[in-house]
């Protein structure tokens, strides 16, 4: 990540902006190998990669060694940065949201250097796709990592999620085809497939977007000046929940037009809303990825957890052992999306995966 490399990439970035607004690098990731002191110590068939997923709610890093068809974690990091703050309403990435994101990324850049990653790919999803000022995000990422980030389409996001989630399902051997559902902050991806993607659709419902659109006044930390606008002790009102349900259900009906969800035999759920619901259903005292990964949560458990979250106050949600502080205000919406998916599509259970688009990004580098 030196000056000459940055200048070369800035030139490429200028050309990229002129060619495309939707995807900053349609030809694939910029992944120039970087010579590192410890590279020679690894086996010749092993590549150390760094994958960064910048979503609406969080920015995540996976450092891993990939070789012989296996991915071995070196580091997994996640920071709640709420990059998508207000994007549904304004169509712009807020300056404070950008700075939170860049601060987290600077820490990740240090880890990437320390661990000697040979290839780096940065992917941005829903919030950046929707923002008119995405160039500010792109320029900041180039300054930090020295690579051009890709603002990928919803379809590509769905495919990366499918690859990341399904490689671990071999040992579990669930019935196929799978319906992989990745509930993000700004969008949710639906992918049907067995060994590869057969149909996919991305829709604009996510835990942050639904909270800001329908449920934000139910949170005592985010409400306006009118106390009548919130439910008892800060919980969402029944009217707010009903509006959110109507919005979600309309989008789920649109998914059916593209994805034959009735063909799926196993529902696979990804991302923080799903894993948090799973942790609550398993009654874990604290977040435990090993216990959550590949757990099977019944529809009845999801319905009960969702009811509990939508009736809870901010402080009650914050006190839940598995709850990340950055999810407290949006977890009700995330759980509601999962709940409606299972009700509308008739799934009796969901297999929960800790591996998702981040792993798909890593696999794409080899």
Q: SSE layout and pairings?
A:
Blueprint: H1 3-19, E1 47-54, E2 58-67, E3 70-80, H2 87-90, H3 95-115, E4 119-124, H4 126-130, H5 134-145, E5 150-151, H6 154-166, H7 169-172, E6 178-183, E7 188-193, E8 197-203, H8 207-215, H9 238-256, E9 266-270, H10 272-281, H11 289-292, E10 295-298, H12 299-311, H13 314-318, H14 331-345, E11 349-352, H15 357-363
Parallel strand pairs: 1-4, 4-5, 6-9, 9-11
Antiparallel strand pairs: 1-2, 2-3, 6-7, 7-8, 10-11
Anisotropy-based shape: globular
Give the CATH H-level superfamily of the largest domain: Exopolyphosphatase. Domain 2
Number of strands: 11
**What is the CATH fold-level name of the largest domain?**
Nucleotidyltransferase, domain 5
Query: What structural class do the secondary elements suggest?
Result: alpha/beta
Reading the helices and strands in chain order gives HEEEHHEHHEHHEEEHHEHHEHHHEH
Question: Helical segment tally?
Answer: 15
Per CATH, the architecture of the largest domain is 2-Layer Sandwich
Question: Could you say how many structural domains there are in total?
Answer: 2
What does this structure look like?
There is one protein chain. With 366 residues, this protein is α/β, with parallel strands linked by helices. It folds into 2 domains: 150 residues, ATPase, nucleotide binding domain (Nucleotidyltransferase, domain 5); 203 residues, Exopolyphosphatase. Domain 2 (Nucleotidyltransferase, domain 5). It contains 15 helices and 11 strands. The strands form 2 sheets. A 6-stranded mixed beta sheet has the order 8-7-6-9-11-10, with helices on both faces. Helix 3 packs parallel to helix 5 and helix 10 crosses helix 12. The longest helix has 21 residues. The chain is globular and about 55 Å long. It starts with a helix and ends with a helix. This is Ppx/GppA family phosphatase. InterPro entries: ATPase_NBD, GppA/Ppx_hydrolase, Ppx_GppA_N. It holds the Pfam family Ppx-GppA.
